[in-house]
Amino acid sequence: MGQVVPVGPMFIGMIKFMIAILLSIRKSAKTANPTLDAIIKAESPEDFVRKAAQEAADRAATDKVEAAEAARRDAEERLRNGIQPVILPTPEEVRAAKVRVEYQEGMFHFAVAGVAGTGKSSLINALRGLRNKDQGAAGAGVVETTSTIGRYPDPNSDNPFVWYDIPGAGTLSQPDWLYFNNQGLFVFDCIIVLFDNRFTQTDAAILTNCRRFQIPTYIVRSKADSHIRNIIDDMGYDPDEDDGAQYQSMYVQAREQFITATRATVQRNLQEANLPHQKVYIVSNKNLLTVTKGRKLSPEIIDELELMKDLLEEARSRRCVLERPA
Questions:
Q1: What are the TM regions of this chain, as residue ranges (predicted)?
Q2: What is the residue range of 184's domain?
Q3: Which of 35, 149, 220, 250 has its CA 20 to 30 A from that of 97?
């Protein structure tokens, strides 16, 4: 049986680590996305960018040879089956996509993708330290009817982050790579794949294409608090008959059931999509907001603190070079 995670030294230490990461990001210089640099390398004059890309290429030489061979075999098989090959964006398409999303050099661009109703706007608000009703918050609870990407700079000007709400794709009626290219998702530095009730084929398709462009991804399940409450209700909880201990006992069971089922379902879906094992972060926006605001953490926290820590670490390791001591 699982237990409610206590707020103790482990969390305090993790918060301190997150603060250190954030400070290093603010003091650091940006490097480039190695995949996009390969596409537009003729227009990247900065020597340190080319060196970083070359170093990354050297480290991954063996893996790339194996990947290239696997890609060749896959392409030949697809051509035999009459399947159109994946087409990478041209330099012009990369530039156009950057203009469209107002890409800023020196910033780290997080995109949140998922079908309509998964709570993308609310998650973005929580990640930015805002409630849905706060000024400058992304519009939440509105039916998604537009194909326009929402752009939301971090309200703290010291944080070099921009957050994007990617319109839900629904059921793809076109090749997944074509949807990915048409949306310009290849320009983002990190993509969070958010789901609520069900991890879909569209979610898996986004992950597949992120791998092609070497874009880091994070799988996040939202609304954990609501899902756990629903399980408790299904267990027959009656507040009128609660002596004070019944809810807590049911909560522990429901929480463990929800976490176990979520992780198992995602891994099964990844396997079916021929994708590697990947962690799923289970969060509620209420608890995530306490993390970003630096408030006292709830004992009901699941993966909120770890998600923030890993996102900050991703920003530092992928786009920033720590200042060297003089």
A1: 6-25
A2: 9-30+86-321
A3: 220
